[in-house]
Amino acid sequence: MLLHSLFIFACSMALALGASLQQVPNFGSNPSNIRMYIYVPDRVAANPAVIVALHPCGGTASQWYSGTSLPSYADQNGFILIYPETPNMSNCWDVNNAASLTHRGGGDALGIVNMVTYTLQKYTANPARVFVMGFSSGGMMTNVLAGSYPDVFAAGSANSGTAFACFAGSASATPAGPNQTCAQGQIQHSSTEWGSFVRNSYPGYAGRRPRMLIWHGLDDTLVRPECAKQALAQWGDVLGVSFNRNVAGVPSSQFTQMVYGDGSQLQGFFAQGVGHAPMADVGLMLKFFGI
Fold first, then answer.
1. Given 3, 94, 254, 290, which residue has the most CB atoms within 10 angstroms?
2. Where is the signal peptide (predicted)?
């Protein structure tokens, strides 16, 4: 009888401990009809951090949920994960239109910010510990969100993305789009000009700016490594930090880490022999975020 009771108890506990990716149908204003999915671990920390994780072109929330080790870290550390999903523009994020590139302007960016607001309110999460990461189109949107909404995001990690406003004015921001000058690293601006795109997205804003990590493969031909150099120039100007030094072998042998200032606000990572691939070191990223 005792063994039977213990078995029933164990089964009930297994059912109780069943965190999974869940869709949230109503999270607030959603100008571009994107979708919200959320992962809330079984054991949520008090006043938890929130990470927005953005899929690449052609991707989905469920694919990106399975594509990194973030959920297991969420289980260990009790933070909440938001997985936005766009069904538009070949599942690529709107990083080219003025709406997303303008604070409170609309577009995918505002929809994602409203997902954050929903999560902060529902789960009593910490508004000072909201972060964003993504790969490819998700990396591009990471830079867009950090630029348009510095009052929402404390830090970002952009993998194989492009600088804020690099795609501005293009008809689309997909690999099949007719204008690939941005993704091919052919748009040239000074660091101050790149930085001004960010500042002009939220005129009059004088608060803190998100700390940033920029990752790129040196053999990437879809989104050229020059794009990461432009993003580093942009954020270096916005954050007021200059290149300090290179460090070989961080986080692994194929990488070179670029440290700006003391490294607390901006770092870049370039990987030898790596093409267009998700490569961000999750443990290093979380440490940079302060998780």
1. 94
2. 1-18
Nearest partner of 148 among 95, 90, 192, 219, judged by Cα: 95
Query: Strand 80-85 and strand 50-54: pairing?
Result: parallel
d(CA 145, CA 147): 5
Catalytic-role residue among 136, 137, 157, 201: 136
Name the pTM for this structure: 0.93
Q: What is the dihedral of CA 61, 63, 69, 71, to 10 degrees?
A: 40
Q: Which CATH number is 263's domain given? A: 3.40.50.1820
Exposed, middle or buried by CB within 10 Å (0-12, 13-18, 19+), for 69?
Answer: exposed
Amino acid at 9: F
205-223 in b/e form (b: 16+ CB < 10 A) is eeeebbbbbbbbbbebeeb
Q: Reply yes or no on whether 242 is catalytic.
A: no
Q: At what angle do helices 137-148 and 225-239 cross, to 10 degrees?
A: 10
Residue 233 has pLDDT above 90, yes or no: yes
In a domain, 68, yes or no: yes
- pLDDT digit string, tens, across residues 70-99: 999 999 999 999 999 999 999 999 999 999
